[in-house]
Amino acid sequence: MSNLKLRKLKNKIFHGLVLSSTLFALIVLIVLLSDIVMDGYKWLSIDFFKNFTSRFPERAGIKAGLFGSLWIIVITASVSFPVGVGAALYLEEYAPKNWFTNIIQINISNLAGVPSIVFGILGLGVFVNTFGFGRSILSGGLTLALLILPIIIVSAQEALRSVPKDLKHGAYALGCTKWQVITGVVLPYAIPGILTGTIISIARALGETAPLIMVGAVTFAAFTPESIFDSFTTLPMQIYSWTSRPQADFHNLAAAAIIVLLAVLLTANALAVLLRDKYQDRIKG
Length: 285
Hints:
Layout: H1 3-40, H2 46-50, H3 63-94, H4 99-111, H5 116-130, H6 137-161, H7 165-173, H8 178-206, H9 210-214, H10 235-243, H11 248-284
Helix pairs in contact: 1-11, 3-6, 3-8, 3-10, 5-6, 6-8, 7-8, 8-11, 10-11
């Protein structure tokens, strides 16, 4: 058998394995989602959103988890988006291309693959203990900001690299300064990719549990936070608490909360797609 035929055979086998594994994963996902929906949809009601958690399943709700998640995500997005985009702009437009920036780039890429629990330990040591923020919303939000910051930087860099050089050269030829080129040409062209990466990263932070356990998120909260220094819980923490209980009704409550969390995550992903398409159409127009 010739090398060409052998290569084609290997490619067919590889594509077949990829397709089979994808179909298997899709079937497993459909089965899991079906089981969750069947267990949880009966518990979805207005009271489920208005009530705090309780020792009695029929009185339990996700109000504290929803409010806590909202506080956390606002802090996470407020810190990670400007810092991440600013770092990407510096690395792409200002930083010299030498061995030092190569080391920084490699470390940023490596940080994007670090397990989330490691960021939780970092948040516990830095924000909770060293800075003295305590086991508060601020500590949780900053920890999640660190978690998604490398992802935002990498996605923003890819978006900035996609800007055609002809556009930048044309702006420079018209007498624009570097900052005018960045704000008037580079960022408007790259904003669809930047927003997409940012929203997907924030959606990942919304579903995290391990880092928040490390920084002291509570599992039972019958209150809504009033400041960034208050104790908190989140929707994933609420799900974790309910699934650890032996009663079947709490497991059904967890399934209902998972449905809500999935709806929020799918909405965030859909928003990312809509924003990307909107800005791409504006650029083409």
